[in-house]
Design a protein that fits this description.
It is a single chain. This protein is α/β, with parallel strands linked by helices. The protein starts with 11 loop residues before the first helix and ends with a helix.
Length: about 725
């Protein structure tokens, strides 16, 4: 069947807002500790910032360009999408601030208070007065706005205060602006009578308290904090590597001063005349204005969580210590261990440290001749960059593809590229109009007798030792000859000329990976028609590609059972009678960000399983260089199947998508045991299986249930032994 209509799909942008609503639900969930809930409020804000800067910014560009063609799944034009986004986003932000007020009230009852200046005691008043004089006042710069000094081009996402002043003599009102300095902490911890209490004040409130000191001879009539978000969508035309580098450096400067797309104003300080003036100057529609009932830009709560929250053990989650597989421990020769066996790592349940040490050891090992690696996002003080730099300086052949177009990491990646080039590494920037999103490292080492051995790391996530503590990803360390040959050909393809190689085990995008997935789904349909046991399980961040979605609808219509674990955007709509009623979609939002891309096809018991850097999104299939690699080791297959099985029966943090596109928590019966998959996966990965719940007493009816029952039986056997 191929006659699918708009009602059979979810709009990409609105589906993303549904995802961010699930993030917000974690802030609302009273089962989570208070500081964890604050952190989810900050994540919601950070997510929404990026969404407006990129997705809404792109839609507004289309409207300005006169582009009014409906998108291919739900038929909404750019204007219609913007209108729907605004209505939905306003609702979510209103809920966010209601949640903020509720959480801060609960925190106050736990001796953590956010204070206004009028609530300060005498000691605290003296403290903030001195802090303003010594730390804040010297940094502030009042900016007059009048006929001779037009409204300035304020930085995107900078917090500012509109100040209405009047002359003591004339009484005429004037306008000035004061930027809240981003170089200073957003909040200040105040002195208290005892260590059990924590009192905090926001920097903008402190500035407003003493703002009259900036305007001698004038009376401050009113103050109104506000924040502008600007379009950060960065289209550029690529002519060659050096041109790309220069073009991105040029565009980065523009990003901070792009067209305004959103204005946030604090409700309690609202001045209609000032608001109308800002709206007019910025050329914003009324729906682009967010009047918030609390502090603007709740991303400052990240700092509260990491600095204040750590002082209150009962307000944060217990830290889950990552495990290191036997053979990869610190002090072990990793090359010797990997040569003996393949290692599957599941971060952050497994530590990312062995991957860092793999690169560091390669840099130091005199027998290593070459290191080749793709870098999309790395940490701010990356030990991997340092190791690659050391390797290049020591004379090793180091080839690094640095993706300059990694959104919001462009500037950092430019710096790394220049540093590596200076050290003597061969730095390449990828292909015209394509992002290199694949995650791969190849190390070439010489053995006794002059024999070369190749070591490969393949992953679903970035080489970022910081985010690897928060993102769930799969990594494979191997010396498999066919994978090594593919890895060698892959880097030669990236750095030289020539057509895409023929792969032994890889599938790559653009184009070929999509054809491969469509073929695998078609195979599953045919096998199901013959044997009646078709099953597809796929886990990824997002699914938007229409061709893949419609092929899944074909498979569902043929009777193939399909389980999808989709964290974010899902344009597929499950449960539609006769179309997608054999498809189940769940989303898990918990303490870790689900980031792995895993694809399972039952194949009448052959059980093909793959991992990838790619989602089932059109951009991954058409506009990115991605790698799909197979999981070949039977024990590795078993592990990944167990992990997905546990996620499919999660009844604590899982939501299922209904046939109308909306999400609801998976219902748990009164007598049913709680299954919080991330917690149980941590126990399972560490070999502590005794807490795996006994989920099903009835005859198992699907793949997840069978897998959990098998896992439970193994657990009981280990306990008996």
């Amino acid at each position: 069947m191929s006659d699918y209509t708009y009602e059979h799909f979810n709009n990409r942008e609105l589906s993303w807002l549904d995802f961010n609503e699930r993030v917000l639900e974690e802030a609302m969930d009273e089962r989570n500790p208070l500081m964890e809930r604050l952190k989810f409020l900050a994540i919601f804000s950070s997510n929404l910032d990026e969404f407006y800067m990129v997705r809404v910014g792109g839609l507004k560009d289309e409207v300005l360009a006169g582009f009014n063609r409906p998108e291919d799944k739900t038929g909404l034009t750019p204007k219609q999408q913007i209108k729907s986004i605004s209505m939905r986003a306003q609702e979510l932000v209103e809920t966010q601030y209601a949640t903020y007020k509720k959480i801060t009230k609960q925190l106050s009852n736990q001796n953590v208070r956010f204070l206004r200046t009028k609530h300060l005691n005498k000691t605290q008043q003296e403290f903030v007065k001195e802090y303003f004089r010594t730390h804040v006042f010297p940094v502030l710069t009042p900016i007059a706005v009048d006929a001779y000094r037009p409204f300035p081009m304020l930085l995107s996402k900078s917090l500012n205060i509109a100040v209405e002043i009047a002359s003591n003599e004339e009484g005429k009102k004037r306008l000035a602006l004061v930027q809240v300095p981003s170089v200073l902490p957003r909040y200040l911890e105040l002195p208290t009578d005892d260590e059990e209490h924590t009192d905090l004040i926001l920097l903008e409130d402190l500035i407003i308290q003493f703002i009259d000191s900036l305007f001698k001879g004038f009376v401050v009539e009113s103050t109104m904090p506000f924040r502008i978000t600007r379009n950060a969508d960065m289209p550029f035309h690529e002519e060659g590597s050096r041109d790309v580098l220069k073009q991105i450096e040029k565009e980065l400067k523009k990003r901070r001063y792009g067209v305004a797309i959103r204005l946030e104003v604090q409700q309690r300080s609202l001045r209609k005349e000032l608001l109308f003036m800002l709206q007019d100057v910025l050329d914003l529609h009324e729906r682009d204005i967010f009047i918030v009932d609390g502090p603007i830009d709740l991303t400052f709560l990240f700092g509260i969580y990491s600095q204040v929250g750590m002082e209150y053990d009962d307000m944060i989650n217990e830290t889950l210590i990552p495990f290191i597989p036997e053979g990869l421990e610190s002090g072990k020769d990793l090359f010797q261990s990997i040569a003996k066996q393949d290692y599957l790592l599941h971060h952050p349940y497994h530590s990312f440290d062995p991957i860092v040490r793999f690169i560091v050891q390669a840099a130091k090992d005199p027998n290593v001749l070459a290191i080749k690696q793709t870098l999309y996002r790395v940490s701010g003080d990356s030990p991997i960059i340092k190791a690659l730099t050391d390797a290049a300086e020591s004379g090793k052949q180091v080839t690094v593809l640095v993706e300059l177009k990694a959104r919001f990491d462009e500037e950092k990646n430019i710096q790394w590229a220049k540093q590596l080039e200076k050290a003597g590494a061969h730095v390449i920037y990828g292909y015209k109009e394509l992002k290199t999103h694949s995650k791969i490292t190849l190390v070439v080492r010489i053995l006794e007798g002059g024999v070369l051995q190749r070591f490969i790391h393949l992953g679903t996530g970035n080489y970022n030792d910081s985010t690897a503590k928060l993102y769930t990803d799969i990594g494979l360390l191997t010396t498999n000859e066919e994978l090594a040959e593919d890895a060698t050909n892959f880097f030669n393809w990236l750095s030289g000329y020539g057509e895409r190689p023929s792969w032994h085990q890889f599938e790559t995008s653009p184009d070929d990976m999509k054809d491969f997935f469509l073929q695998k789904i078609e195979e599953e349909i045919k096998l199901h028609e013959k044997y009646g046991n078709g099953h597809i399980v796929a886990k990824m961040n997002s699914i938007t590609d229409r061709a893949i979605i419609t092929k899944l609808y074909d498979a569902s219509s043929a009777g193939v059972k399909i389980d999808l674990i989709i964290r974010g955007i899902c344009c597929l709509r499950p449960g539609i009678k006769g179309i997608s009623d054999n498809i189940r979609v769940i989303s898990i939002i918990d303490r870790y960000l689900e980031h792995s891309r895993i694809f399972y096809f039952y194949q009448n018991g052959k059980e093909d399983l793959y991992c990838s850097s790619a989602d089932w999104m059109t951009r991954n299939m058409k506009k990115r260089i991605e790698i799909l690699f197979p999981i070949l080791d039977p024990s590795h297959k078993t592990y990944i199947k167990d992990m997905m099985a546990l996620q499919l029966v999660d009844n604590v943090k899982a939501r299922r998508q209904r046939s109308d596109g909306r999400y609801v928590y998976v219902k748990r019966e009164d007598n049913e045991e709680e299954i919080q998959s991330q917690i149980i996966i941590h126990q399972y990965t560490g070999g502590r299986w005794n807490n795996i719940p006994s989920v099903f007493e009835r005859e198992p009816s699907n793949w997840a249930e069978r897998e959990v029952l098998r896992l439970r039986a193994e657990n009981e056997k280990m306990t008996d032994d």
